[in-house]
From TrEMBL:
SUPFAM superfamilies: NAD(P)-binding Rossmann-fold domains. GO terms for molecular function: UDP-glucose 4-epimerase activity. Its EC number is 5.1.3.2. InterPro entries: Epimerase_deHydtase, NAD(P)-bd_dom_sf, UDP_G4E. Residues 4-254 form the NAD-dependent epimerase/dehydratase domain. Pfam families: Epimerase. This is UDP-glucose 4-epimerase. It comes from Microbacterium thalli. Coiled coil: none annotated. It comes from the Bacteria.
Length: 326
């Protein structure tokens, strides 16, 4: 039996694929390559190119590869851009998830790990985000991820008396960074690490957006978690579902402490050996001082831990990005 990773040719999905294989689970990748890369799929891993919106394709792939469960990573992940592209965001993230669930039901696949987001919380005014905090998403992206969680919940209720009721869990996280494999790196034009890397490679100076926040050094504090740790948690969640063990409906994969943007910049200079002083730009509208999540429930159930220091996060991401330039 195998596990399908939707979006398995993307930055996070490709790490999940590698973690599944390392755990002795057979991964199958489904990806339309809208933001993923065929070269991120390891040799020998079955790769189905197509959209999660194509129900016959999804159902056929589930049947053909004897899929036991799905790790649903595919989606449109640009929160800021989702404000100007809400229809596209909902089509990919809401309708896409509905189609995946429908295909699973028809093919008799009853287990799913959903790659959700801490964007479901919006901008909470608390020092530490817990799973029971009210959900107030501030973008169509965050809203679409919350609706995705509702779809899983409602489908589980609807199939509760079926021969194979849906079993599910959702993993919420903020900023995924670093690399667990030098052949895979973050190619997003909207994430802090690749933005800084591209600036440094181009000989330009990275920018901090605002340095007058109510934090120790005046810059935003956020959750930064290593992609290999994220991938490992997805695999443990899949294993628990496969074993029939209990899981929570959702888990925060949080750092507990967070890192400031200035701390990230300092680590960038330290690790890359490129001495720079970041420019200070204006605040971005709506940026809160601090958003950090707890990972206590995930540590209890999913072996969740932050195994990488900030320097290791930067080093692994930088080495993978530099390797891509060779």
């Amino acid at each position: 039996m195998s596990w399908m990773v939707t979006g398995g040719a993307g930055y996070i999905g490709a790490h999940v694929v590698r973690a599944l294989a390392a755990a002795g689970l057979d991964p199958v990748v489904l990806d339309d390559l809208s933001s993923g890369h065929a070269g991120f799929v390891p040799e020998g891993v079955p790769f189905v190119r197509g959209s999660i919106l194509d129900r016959p394709l999804v159902e056929g792939a589930l049947r053909e590869h004897g899929v036991e469960g799905v790790i649903h990573v595919a989606g449109y992940k640009y929160a800021g851009v989702s404000v100007t592209r809400p229809l596209h965001t909902y089509a990919q993230n809401v309708e896409g998830t509905r189609v995946v669930l429908e295909a699973m039901q028809t093919a008799g696949v009853d287990k799913i790990v959903f790659s959700s987001s801490a964007a479901v919380y919006g901008t909470p005014d608390v020092p530490l985000v817990t799973e029971d905090l009210p959900k107030r998403p501030a973008s169509p992206y965050g809203e679409s991820k919350l609706i995705g969680e509702w779809l899983l919940r409602d489908q589980a209720v609807a199939t509760a008396d079926a021969a194979a009721p849906l079993r599910h869990t959702s993993l919420r996280y903020f900023n995924v960074v670093g690399s667990g494999d030098p052949s895979v790196y973050d190619t997003s034009p909207h994430n802090l690490f690749p933005i800084v890397f591209e600036k440094l490679i181009a000989g330009e100076t990275p920018q901090i957006n605002g340095d007058d926040y109510a934090t120790d050094d005046g810059t935003n504090v956020r959750d930064y978690v290593h992609v290999a740790d994220i991938a490992a948690a997805h695999v443990v969640a899949a294993q628990r579902l496969a074993a029939g063990e209990s899981v929570e409906p959702a888990y925060n994969l949080g750092s507990q402490n967070g890192l400031s943007v200035r701390e990230i910049m300092d680590a960038m200079a330290r690790v890359t050996g490129i001495d720079f002083t970041p420019k200070i730009g204006p605040r971005r509208p709506g940026d809160p001082d601090r958003i950090v999540a707890t990972g206590e429930l995930a540590a209890r159930d999913l072996e969740w831990a932050n195994r990488y220091s900030v320097d290791e996060m930067v080093r692994t991401g930088w080495e993978a990005r530099r390797a891509a330039s060779v």
